[in-house]
User: Which sequence fits this backbone?
């Protein structure tokens, strides 16, 4: 996978103005983004290991092992990887909720009621 | 009219009545509602709508049949069509939602340039169109079997219904009808699967119980000249399995008709949970599919093996009318079963009928057979409607409005969109009658193209501020041209001759390489050309944070509309066509 370095390249760092707002702190933004990227990286590593690792690259070795009635590699390829994907997204959503709250960038209320800060679009 | 046909008619009429009723109740006049349902759909409903949109004729009708014949290698479709949601949820959905534009072409138009927008709109049309062809073919199979007409007639009927229905309501109608469609299709898929699992193993959970029959299936297959079911890499080489799976995953994350759904949530948080619900709903079908494949294969082989032609089960006769089941000439007893006419097996069964025929093959009662037919139609229609919407919005919005008549009023744009839909349907019918491959494979081509065009442009646009318009445009063109060229080179679709696969890479898997080409070209060209404006870099920075920061020292609650921090989206971006 050739994914470019996602850290802030090029483009001048976003400048914060101070008028009426918080003091110019870059730190929380960098910190928030770094933690977001770290969570992303962990989840994607698991994503790759379970699907491409267990389901394709090492499927033949794992098939030697029997898991209930399934050859293990076959089970990963046709069942286990899908369960893992669902869990990964749930973990992502829950962890990001927590991260957003911690940094105070969460949107008030949830999707089914709030109209937070998006009024201009309606 | 046979018992099965009567039940099929009942279920199809009932379910269609429901969809059309919902679409009619929520029909929309204004453009915004037509395209994105005015950002007001609860996440669970949105998840179900994404799932219905997503699970097409390929998932419902074709996939389990393909798995039945591919065995272990069928996992390319299982993993490929679910794993992409992880990429979508983590890399794209929340950021695109924060950006707050309507379609993928709109995002790239704002992020890069008008030229990139036009390229993206063109790619969206090609991809969605390829995908629609698969749906037409799938819907056609349903009507052909249950109305006892030939396949082409079935395709015409399916197309007419899909078109009517997509024109009736915009996204709003479609969101709620798609929730209904999801309900119909998942019920239709699970009931026979549970019934078969219960009958064959005594455990009514197909996901758990199909393990029991695998050993027997392996030996049964071997007797009939097939590969062992659980043996990996019998149908495709390992490298191709890897590439196809990746192409399907990456393509999923880049499909325009799925991405547009994430704009219908109100918040960034909502888009994350929508992705979760969507995949949960999808997983319900996708974990059942391999069980359906295994059970059906087992019943099929057991039912016909060593049977004389005159004593074959009734379903063989029933399905021969569609031309999708054939018995070899001069065959007296069935000694071998295949899915490919070229294999010369005694009994040829097309992959695409296995799910629809599975209740009949397992000897389940007629109402269940009818229900499955209604489910297959729901799957084909919901996806086709979502795709037609992308085609119409790309034509009317990104080409007509942006390029030809900037002062076109809403009415005129809607009309242009509908004409585009009609045109797409007509061409799709013609292509659906001569599909280059099985339904699921036609659909896989659409994914390859999405993988090689949109995904890199979107990911770079979000995560790499330095990426500029020239890079994105060059990358998309290079990726798409590369991918399509290889598909044309290896398939006989456009009257060209089919050439051998290079390095074992099949046309379904080439999208992965295409995506790499796209990334590489985009990065190199971006580096060689000037960086995007500072304003744009700030917009990209803004989409990283779901909302403005509230709990800060020195100032009380920063209201949503206060200034001070860069905010992406319509506030600072070039104006959207909508507001």
Assistant:
């Amino acid at each position: 996978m050739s994914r470019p370095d996602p850290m802030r390249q090029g483009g001048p760092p976003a400048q914060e103005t101070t008028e009426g707002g918080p003091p110019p702190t870059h730190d929380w933004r960098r910190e928030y983004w770094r933690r977001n990227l770290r969570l992303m990286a962990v989840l994607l590593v698991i994503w790759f290991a379970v699907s491409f690792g267990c389901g394709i690259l090492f499927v033949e070795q794992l098939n030697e092992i029997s898991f209930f009635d399934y050859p293990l590699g076959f089970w990963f390829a046709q069942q286990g990887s899908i369960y893992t994907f669902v869990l990964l997204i749930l973990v992502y959503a829950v962890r990001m909720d927590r991260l957003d709250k911690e940094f105070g960038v969460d949107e008030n209320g949830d999707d089914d009621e709030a109209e937070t800060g998006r009024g201009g679009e309606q | 009219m046979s018992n099965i046909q009567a039940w099929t008619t009942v279920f199809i009429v009932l379910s269609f009545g429901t969809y059309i009723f919902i679409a009619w109740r929520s029909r929309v006049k204004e453009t915004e509602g037509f395209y994105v349902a005015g950002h007001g759909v609860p996440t669970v409903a949105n998840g179900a709508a994404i799932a219905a949109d997503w699970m097409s004729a390929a998932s419902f009708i074709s996939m389990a049949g393909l798995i039945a014949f591919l065995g272990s290698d069928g996992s390319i479709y299982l993993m490929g069509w679910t794993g992409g949601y992880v990429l979508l949820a983590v890399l794209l959905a929340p950021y695109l939602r924060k950006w707050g534009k309507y379609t993928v072409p709109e995002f790239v138009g704002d992020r890069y340039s008008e030229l990139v927008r036009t390229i993206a709109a063109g790619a969206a049309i090609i991809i969605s169109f390829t995908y629609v062809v698969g749906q037409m073919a799938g819907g056609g199979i349903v009507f052909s079997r249950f109305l006892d007409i030939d396949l082409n007639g079935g395709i015409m009927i399916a197309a007419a219904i899909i078109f009517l229905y997509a024109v009736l309501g915009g996204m709003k109608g479609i969101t709620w009808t798609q929730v209904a469609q999801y309900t119909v299709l998942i019920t239709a898929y699970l009931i026979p699967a549970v019934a078969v699992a219960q009958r064959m193993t005594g455990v009514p959970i197909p996901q758990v119980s199909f393990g029991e029959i695998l050993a027997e299936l392996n030996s049964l297959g071997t007797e009939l000249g097939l590969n062992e079911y659980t043996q990996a890499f019998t149908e495709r080489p390992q490298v191709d399995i890897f590439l196809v799976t990746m192409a399907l995953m990456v393509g999923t994350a880049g499909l325009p008709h799925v991405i547009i759904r994430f704009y219908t949530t109100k918040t960034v948080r909502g888009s994350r949970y929508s992705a979760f619900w969507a995949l949960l709903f999808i997983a319900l079908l996708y974990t059942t599919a391999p069980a359906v494949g295994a059970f059906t294969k087992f019943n099929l082989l057991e039912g016909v093996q060593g049977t004389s032609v005159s004593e074959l089960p009734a379903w063989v006769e029933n399905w021969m009318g569609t031309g999708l089941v054939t018995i070899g000439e001069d065959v007296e007893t069935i000694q071998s079963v295949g899915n490919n006419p070229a294999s010369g097996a005694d009994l040829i069964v097309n992959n695409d009928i296995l799910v629809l025929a599975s209740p009949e093959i397992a000897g389940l009662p007629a109402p269940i057979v009818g229900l499955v037919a209604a489910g297959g139609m729901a799957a084909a229609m919901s996806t086709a409607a979502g795709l037609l919407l992308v085609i119409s919005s790309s034509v009317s919005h990104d080409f007509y409005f942006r390029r030809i008549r900037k002062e076109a009023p809403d009415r005129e744009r809607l009309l242009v969109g509908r004409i585009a839909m009609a045109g797409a349907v007509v061409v799709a019918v013609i292509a659906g009658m001569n599909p280059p491959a099985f339904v699921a494979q036609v659909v896989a081509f659409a994914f390859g193209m999405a993988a090689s065009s949109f995904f890199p442009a979107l990911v770079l646009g979000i995560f790499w501020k330095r990426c500029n318009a020239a890079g994105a445009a060059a990358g998309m063109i290079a990726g798409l041209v590369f991918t399509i060229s290889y598909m044309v080179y290896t398939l006989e679709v456009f009257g060209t001759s089919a050439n051998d696969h290079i390095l074992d890479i099949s046309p379904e898997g080439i999208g992965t390489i295409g995506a790499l080409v796209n990334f590489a070209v985009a990065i190199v060209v971006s580096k060689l050309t000037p960086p995007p404006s500072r304003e744009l870099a700030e917009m990209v920075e803004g989409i990283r944070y779901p909302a403005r920061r509230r709990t800060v020292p020195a100032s009380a609650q920063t209201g949503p509309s206060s200034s001070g921090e860069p905010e992406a989206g319509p506030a600072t971006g070039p104006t959207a066509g909508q507001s």
Summary: The domain at 3-528 of chain B is CATH 1.20.1730.10 (Sodium/glucose cotransporter). Chain B touches chain A through 95 residues (CB under 8 Å). The mean pLDDT of chain B is 77.
